[in-house]
Amino acid sequence: MNWNEQGIQAMNEQKYEDAAQAFTKAIEEDKTNPTGYINFGNLLGAVGEMEKALVFFDKAIEYDEKAATAYYGAGTIYYKQDQFEEAVKMFKQALANGLEEGDVFFMLGMSYYQLESLPYAQANLQRAVELNEADVDARFQYGLTLAQLELIDEAIDQLEQVVQRDPKHADAFFNLGVAYAYNEELNKALDRFNQALEIQPTHGLAANGKKTIEQALEQG
Questions:
Q1: Longest dimension (CA), the chain
Q2: What's in the keyword line of the UniProt record (predicted)?
């Protein structure tokens, strides 16, 4: 294994000091290769050194302006720092340079969601789901975005797929309850709130939803 491979293995084993030493040696061995800088940036991001991580991603881009994973890494840092407009710029650069993967579309969609640019969030989260149908997080966020856009039937379809793939997803059951209530399908709404509470008895929003639906059913 080369130094970068050794560093990644150490990172996966949470041996962060060993990883740092390996990535340092990779950079010393080839100072103009962006890979070592990108890996070190990912390591720094993993241990919470956000500003230092950005320095390494910037250095990687300086040596290779088409280093798509450097833009993606920088985007994740900006996202964690709530700098969503900067995150959007970085994720779009990652896509422009060929990193057309589900994770990139997911993070771009989430950045747009945080900026309340819901149509853009919808488009990118939809693409994330298309590229990785097993990604429950992407499908859940896609469903929430559809609901925010009042595309309720489409939201229900996505959220039902979430709970099929993850039967313990209390928040998905809760949001299904809200969606069915919006559609005035009260018995289905009550069922989904109950399922959320079975999974997470302390789910206060689901408890409130259940109470509201029970009162509505009693009143006929």
A1: 75
A2: Repeat, TPR repeat
Q: How many CB atoms lie within 10 A of CB 134?
A: 9
- Those residues with Cβ within 8 angstroms of residue 212's Cβ, 6 or more apart along the chain or in another chain: 181
Architecture of domain 100-159: Alpha Horseshoe (1.25)
- For the chain, the domains span 1-96, 100-159, 167-220
Report the C-alpha gap between 86 and 76 in whole angstroms: 10
- The pTM assigned to this predicted structure is 0.91
Band (pLDDT 50/70/90 cuts) for residue 1 is confident
Nearest to 118 by CA among 150, 77, 166, 85: 150
What's the mean pLDDT in 42-62?
A: 95
Asked whether 34 and 5 are in contact (CB, 8 A), the reply is no
Same fold, 1-96 and 100-159: yes
Q: What is the pLDDT of residues 172-188, one digit of tens each?
A: 999 999 999 999 999 99
Which superfamily is assigned to 167-220 in CATH? Tetratricopeptide repeat domain (1.25.40.10)
Both tokens of 23, joined, read 């990535």
Q: Which CATH superfamily is domain 1-96 in?
A: Tetratricopeptide repeat domain (1.25.40.10)
